[in-house]
Amino acid sequence: MRIGLTGGIAAGKSTVAAHLKGLGACLVDYDQLARQVVEPGSVGMRRIVREFGAEAMNPDGSLNRRWMAAHVFSPQAAPDARQRLDEIEHPLIYQRAQELERQIVEKYRIRTVERENSGQSSLSPVIVHDVPLLAEVIDTIPFSFDHILTVEAPEEVRIQRMMEARGMSREQAEGRIRHQSSRGQREAIADVVIDSTQPIEQMFERLDMLFAQWR
């Protein structure tokens, strides 16, 4: 069972992902994969420097995220900057996601054989692909999903969260939202919408019910 998980920035998607993982889901975290593919000395890091220039890299070889944010997400960024970055990162991220999923499936295959040999029922993994930009890449991502969840909250709530928790200015927060899909676009691809402004106990109860159905 493959689940797609998405949502607007600062809407509460990480909380939902953590809860599903706690229930027993196997998580493929695309934010984590995105960090891995631009680690110092990586193919991704070398390609970014070649595309955007040496200023994209810190003296220690790591990605200069502040510089990249200003040159990709700000109103002054080149119109094609986001596309150029995506064309570097996305294929590398997908490759890692495929490798991680194969490892999960193999682990469950071995566990199923062990359980069947001892007279127990087989196991099948619920794999959650946590993809912030799923609506943007739904036509190119090399996976199909049995269900897609989107986690949503009003835009002003999300802006306040980014300003308070991440130290962003309002302009920076609005820029991040502007460079994502709209709520309508995310809900168009989803069959489940999670409202993160509801009491957290209520939200978790709904997730518990969904996970039980998937199982």
Q: In short, what is this structure?
A:
The protein is an alpha/beta fold and 215 residues long. It is built from ten helices and five strands, in the order E-H-E-H-H-H-H-E-H-E-H-H-H-E-H.
Please specify the SSE layout and strand pairing.
Elements lengths: L1 E6 L5 H11 L2 E4 H7 L6 H10 L12 H8 L8 H37 L9 E4 L3 H4 L9 E6 L2 H11 L4 H9 L4 H7 L2 E4 L4 H15 L1
Parallel strand pairs: 1-3, 1-4, 2-3, 4-5
Keywords:
single chain, 215 residues, alpha/beta, Rossmann fold, 2 domains, 5-stranded parallel sheet, 55% helix
CATH architecture of the largest domain: 3-Layer(aba) Sandwich
* Global mean pLDDT: 93
Tally of discrete structural domains? 2
Please report which band the strand proportion falls in: under 5%, 5-15%, 15-25%, 25-35%, 35-45% or over 45%.
5-15%
Envelope shape: globular
Number of helices: 10
Q: Mind explaining what this structure looks like?
A:
With 215 residues, the chain is α/β, with parallel strands linked by helices. The chain folds into two domains: 1-25 and 126-215, 3-Layer(aba) Sandwich (Rossmann fold), CATH 3.40.50; 32-124, P-loop containing nucleotide triphosphate hydrolases (Rossmann fold, 3-Layer(aba) Sandwich). Helices cover 55% and strands 11% of the residues. It has a five-stranded parallel sheet, sandwiched between helices. The chain is globular, with a radius of gyration of 19 Å. It starts with a strand and ends with a helix. The model has no long low-confidence stretch (mean pLDDT 93).
